[in-house]
């Protein structure tokens, strides 16, 4: 999504917002999520064990409140919500609905516009896949349009076979964010000089996103779903120096 913002109007999936700073999706652009099986956590009919982190079901529920764009892109764009979720197997309509939005629909409140509780369409593919449970691979693959090829990452270390951090790491995304800030300042009103240089500060600076996330955590608490587990704050307290910018588009 970072790349699309910097393209021409014809190529971009975004258009400038009317009457305010930033961007919004073009009307004909929709985001759809396909998962080969029901996400772990509340969407599953049967639980194997208690999780020590927030489950996939919890994270999708979060997307349905704060959007899939994350905190950094919220500096530039309106929240982006999923139009639909399609499962390859283990789809149970009532369980899936409850997991991704239903369990907080009576407790979520106080969301700053345009944030809202999104309720995506949900379905099973026409020909369900035969589920073959097994140990997950120790690598992940990512690719985006415009890249020469896919990136293969060790899912334990977050690095490739050369020991280089993934382009989807927090450091990689923050670098692209800072490189983008100055290039679209006329639309967003954010300049490189005024933008926080620490990753955690840049995320905290998006007040509406921060408030929406706080209301999500509160909604989970009111629904007696437990406390939203947070990762150590230290992992977000890093900065990038000038040598790591500009030439790393």
UniProtKB/TrEMBL annotation:
Tree of life domain: Eukaryota
Q: A to I editase domain: which residues? A: 1-238
Question: Which InterPro entries does the record associate with it?
Answer: A_deamin
What name does the UniProt record give this protein?
A to I editase domain-containing protein
Q: Which Pfam families match?
A: A_deamin
């Amino acid at each position: 999504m970072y790349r699309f913002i910097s393209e021409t109007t014809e190529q971009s999936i975004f258009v400038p917002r009317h009457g305010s700073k930033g961007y919004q999706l073009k009307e004909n652009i929709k985001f759809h999520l396909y998962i080969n099986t029901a996400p772990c956590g509340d969407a599953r009919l049967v639980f194997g064990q208690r999780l020590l982190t927030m489950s996939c079901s919890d994270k999708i529920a979060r997307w349905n409140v704060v959007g899939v764009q994350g905190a950094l892109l919220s500096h530039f764009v309106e929240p982006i919500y999923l139009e639909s979720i399609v499962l390859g197997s283990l789809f149970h309509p009532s369980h899936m609905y409850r997991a991704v939005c239903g369990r907080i629909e009576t407790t979520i409140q106080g969301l700053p516009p345009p944030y809202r509780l999104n309720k995506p369409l949900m379905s099973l593919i026409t020909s369900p896949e035969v589920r073959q449970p097994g140990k997950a691979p120790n690598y992940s693959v990512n690719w985006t349009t415009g890249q020469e090829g896919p990136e293969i990452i060790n899912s334990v270390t977050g690095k490739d076979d050369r020991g280089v951090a993934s382009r989807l790491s927090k450091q990689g995304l923050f670098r692209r964010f800072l490189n983008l800030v100055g290039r679209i300042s006329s639309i967003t009103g954010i300049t490189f000089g005024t933008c926080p240089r620490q990753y955690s500060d840049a995320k905290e600076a998006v007040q509406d996103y921060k408030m929406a996330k706080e209301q999500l955590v509160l909604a989970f608490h009111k629904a007696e779903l437990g406390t939203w587990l947070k990762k150590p704050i230290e992992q977000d307290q890093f900065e990038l120096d000038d040598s790591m910018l500009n030439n790393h588009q």
